[in-house]
Each structure stands twice: as structure tokens, then as C-alpha cells.
Design brief:
Largest sheet: 8 strands, mixed
Structural class: alpha+beta
Low-confidence stretches: 104-109
Strand content: 25-35%
Helix content: 25-40%
Radius of gyration: 24 Å
Distance between the termini: 53 Å
Number of strands: 18
Mean pLDDT: 82
Shape: globular
Number of helices: 9
Order of helices and strands: EEHHEHEEHHHEHEHEEEEEEEEEHEE
Length: 357
């Protein structure tokens, strides 16, 4: 059996242990339902035979606008729904660490498995967070130029789902009505679909000062209760993360330099970021020569990436795995359409707020 820090290593047991380690941020993301999965895409891409991309049927909806008056003499005119296609792509990630990366943290009385698993769990969450931000950057960078159905739909989405108050003379910072206006502007009467807000700590601080933020608490296995960097704003779960987009403007022509913050608001199942696993997710290697002998832990992950209502259009250059640069590229994303008509932007529960704090 492989050794790590001179301890026995079972990759299956280690993987199960990592998954059991409590990760508060991951758990809250899961509870919010904003980051989810697509069962059709999962069935198509979960094999370990090199599956990279899949197009899944996206079924159109019927609506009341086709209802006809029954006057007793008129025939019923039948209508039908449109079936679209939605693209999903897989993204594989890998990393490794030598014994020294962890052994310096291992002291007498500290459980080896728990120590390493804690770090791997946090690492995985950071990887997923970076992928999530890349996807969101990509969908707001979609091509909005031209007269195609896709371009027109993208333009409407970007305009309606971006609530930019950074240029306002007075109310350029988040306030009591900011979130409600942003989600109504994006999805109208479907605004109840939003469940999660991810913001920079600067935004959270402003909300705290206005007493608009409530913080959640967490009780650990020892019965100790502590505050979390997770709050609630207008009934939506809030995650605070300083990796949210920040733009520094230079100013000029009578304008002072400014710092613009982007806050993302997501609905249930808005982003698909599903961990479907690698064929060999954890592996140990012993090098008896280097540095007098060292052990290396290898980690591999595989994710399905997609957005509800938006299709990933795979470029010919993408042949193995979608990088974060691929996910950020707006040319790779399209509002779902059939070439003539696109789905309603109101069905896409993703919005962003741009403010000065």
C-alpha cells in the first residue's frame, strides 16, 4: 500500500473521507440550490472514455397566449413547442503536492487523515469557485453584436441582467432596495427564483453598516458556536468572498478614480458545476531518491460545466478539457435558440450588480 508521510494510504478511503469533511461554504452553496447538475448531461458525460462535450435537448414551454375562444363553432388550432439544444462541456483539473507540503503542518496528536483531507477539501472548493467565476464572466461577455437571434438575445440578457449603479450621482452604493430592483429588472415576476448572492467583503460591510445583513452561525462537533462569513440579504443566502470581480478605474476629465465591485445573484440551478469524478481521483507516488525520499499526492477532478438557459458552444480548438480561459470566453456561450427565436431572458436566473461599494 502507498505511503504518505510514512502512513498507509488507501485512495478510496481517502476520497470518501475528503467528501465527509464539513465545508461550510460548499454546504451553503449546495443548500442554496444555485449550483446544481443536469441529469441528462451527467448521463452523457460521466463515462471515463474521454467524453468532452454533449448537446442535450432543451424543451420549450407552452404558454397561455395560444388559448383560443370556444364559441361552439370554431375549430381548435393546434400549436406545438420548440425543442432546443443546450451544450455542456467537461473540465478536468489536476494538482499534486509532495510530503513537505503537508508534513510541516502535522504535529503530535493531530490526525493525519483529517489534516490532509481538510486542506484538500478547501482546495477543491477554491477550484470550483474559480470555475464558477469564469463561467459567470463568460456569460456576461457573450457576443451582443449583429442581428442574429443569438446576438439579440445576448444583448437583451446582458442589459436586463446587469444592474449598474456605479455611475449614479448619489446612490452608487448598495442600499435597501438594490437587490430587489436588480432581480426584478432581470426576471420580472420570476424574481423569486433567485436564492444566492455572492459579494465582496466591501459590499458586505456596507450592508452591515446599514443593518441590512444578518449573519448565520455554525455549531461544530464540540458544541462551539461561531459566526460565519455567510449572511442573509432580503431572504437570500449571502456568501462573502474577496475573489469577486473588482475593477479599478483611472478617472480623468473631472472624474476621480473609482473601485467598482461586481456582486452576482444566482437562482436555483442557475449554474451547472457537477463533480463527476476522475477515473483515478487520488494517487500516491513514492520517490526514494529525491531529497532522500519523498511522497507525492496527486489529485484529479472532472466537472460538467453549463448554465441553465445558456448553451456552451464548443470551439474546434477545444479537444481535451475546458480551461478557465475557455469558460471566460464569451464567444463560447449563447442564449439557447433555434436560429430564429431564443428563449426568454426572464427564465435565466443570473444577475449582477455593479456598484462602488
Amino acid at each position: 500500500m502507498a505511503k504518505f508521510d510514512s502512513k498507509s494510504f488507501n485512495p478510496q478511503a481517502f476520497g470518501a473521507y475528503v467528501n465527509r469533511i464539513p465545508n461550510v461554504k460548499k454546504n451553503e452553496l449546495a443548500k442554496s440550490g444555485a449550483v446544481g447538475s443536469n441529469e441528462y448531461a451527467k448521463a452523457a458525460l460521466s463515462s471515463q472514455t474521454g467524453s468532452l462535450y454533449a448537446r442535450i435537448p432543451y424543451f420549450g414551454r407552452i404558454d397561455g397566449s395560444t388559448s383560443q375562444n370556444n364559441d361552439g363553432v370554431s375549430d381548435i388550432t393546434a400549436t406545438n413547442t420548440t425543442t432546443y439544444e443546450q451544450g455542456f462541456v467537461t473540465a478536468s483539473r489536476m494538482d499534486s503536492w509532495t510530503e513537505r507540503s503537508f508534513s510541516k503542518n502535522i504535529t503530535a496528536g493531530v490526525d493525519f487523515m483529517d489534516n490532509v483531507a481538510q486542506q484538500i477539501g478547501d482546495y477543491k472548493q477554491e477550484v470550483k469557485q474559480n470555475m464558477l467565476l469564469a463561467i459567470l464572466e463568460g456569460v456576461f461577455a457573450m457576443n451582443t453584436k449583429g442581428n442574429t437571434a443569438a446576438a439579440k438575445a445576448a444583448k437583451e440578457f446582458v442589459e436586463k441582467h446587469t444592474y449598474d449603479i456605479s455611475e449614479n450621482a448619489d446612490d452608487n452604493k448598495v442600499g435597501a432596495d438594490t437587490l430587489n430592483k436588480a432581480i426584478q429588472n432581470a426576471c420580472g415576476d420570476n424574481k423569486s427564483a433567485f436564492s444566492l448572492v455572492i459579494m465582496h467583503s466591501e459590499i458586505a460591510t456596507n450592508l452591515e453598516n446599514l443593518r441590512l445583513m444578518k449573519y448565520l452561525t455554525y455549531t461544530d462537533k464540540d458544541g462551539i458556536t461561531r459566526d460565519l462569513a455567510i449572511g442573509s440579504w432580503n431572504g437570500r443566502t449571502v456568501l462573502i468572498d474577496d475573489s469577486m470581480p473588482v475593477e479599478e478605474t483611472a478617472g480623468g476629465e473631472g472624474k476621480a478614480a473609482q473601485t467598482k465591485y461586481t456582486t452576482y445573484v444566482l437562482g436555483k440551478g442557475a449554474v451547472v458545476l457537477d463533480d463527476i469524478g476522475d477515473s483515478v481521483p487520488y494517487e500516491m507516488s513514492r520517490d526514494p531518491k529525491t531529497n532522500g525520499g519523498q511522497d507525492t499526492l496527486y489529485v484529479r477532478d472532472r466537472y460538467i460545466c453549463g448554465v441553465d438557459g445558456i448553451s456552451f458552444e464548443k470551439p474546434a480548438s477545444l479537444t481535451a478539457s475546458a480551461s478557465n480561459a475557455d469558460l471566460k470566453n464569451g464567444e463560447n456561450w449563447n442564449i439557447i435558440n433555434d436560429g430564429n427565436n431564443a428563449i426568454s431572458h426572464k427564465s435565466i436566473a443570473i444577475a449582477r450588480i455593479i456598484s462602488l461599494g
